[in-house]
Fold this protein.
Amino acid sequence: MKETIACRKAFSQTLLELAREDRDLYAVTSDARGSVTLNDFAKQLPDQLIECGIAEQNEIGVAAGMALAGKKVFVCAPAPFLSARGYEQLKLDVAYNRANVKVCGVSGGVSYGTLGTSHHALQDIASTRSLEGLTVLIPSDGAQTRWLTRWMARTEGPVYMRMGRNPVPGLYGPDTEFQVGKAMELKAGQDLSILAAGETVSIALEAARLLEARGISARILDLFSIKPLDTEAILKAARETWAILTVEEHCVYGGLGGMVAEVVSQSYPVPMTIMGLPDEHTYPGESPDVFRHYNLTPEGIAKQAQELFGKKQRQIAVMAKFFQQQEKRLTRITED
């Protein structure tokens, strides 16, 4: 049975289960029990919750100190503030020291849509993926979030995980196994590949179904593991479908699209389109409204995919003509 649930709720429920079994596991938060859905955790395990008030830099520093003293620590707060206000502490206290801290940002992307640009986390992937030794994750549904939360609890080392705020469709069953560093293929396809992460994965899958009805076969990859990145799956998609569209709830600079382009451009260049949020003050509104404004909808993605497929076909035609000309030229040289 696939579960429709907000990733933040799947996270907090799983964290509570783990903390009941392990008295060395702590949640550290910055007046964000409601945002993270930690109220049950606070009621049932008050001695394992550290409240730092609205002080993201302090909570990351506190978490790093606790981790270096042997505790398993999950920092839980809104992603826009953890990733921006707390960036220096994330860099030095956590990543530099290889502290066993799991920094879990909820309401990532445009989850706080109506509150505007100040409350949007659209630069966090670009910033966190550049920190040495820091694993970066963006789960796409509840089952994946639960698995990753358990994985973080049993795995040493620093992690940044970003989650959305709203309920998302279930993509995976409760017994699905994942591997950090390996993408999940949700749909096979030969004409182009659509690569997404987080809440955009289910939208990309809907777009693929629209494309299928129009005669275009799209492969869907869930790149929930931002770092380490599954470069093998990306290059396989490039070789086999010869066109890649990336979709993300992040600025188009330095995020998933940029990461994929870095891989493809250096090893197997193919036509690419990057869909995300542009370099501007973000349109304010509820999450679905913001997605619609920027065409991050099944129809919007399908339209971009069709245009990319047409570009691919034109490039193939140009290349075919070029090779025909070269063949004729070689034939004349041989005859002479």
Remarks:
- The two ends are 71 Å apart (CA to CA).
- Residues 275 and 323 are 32 Å apart (CA to CA).
- DSSP finds 13 helices and 14 strands in the chain.
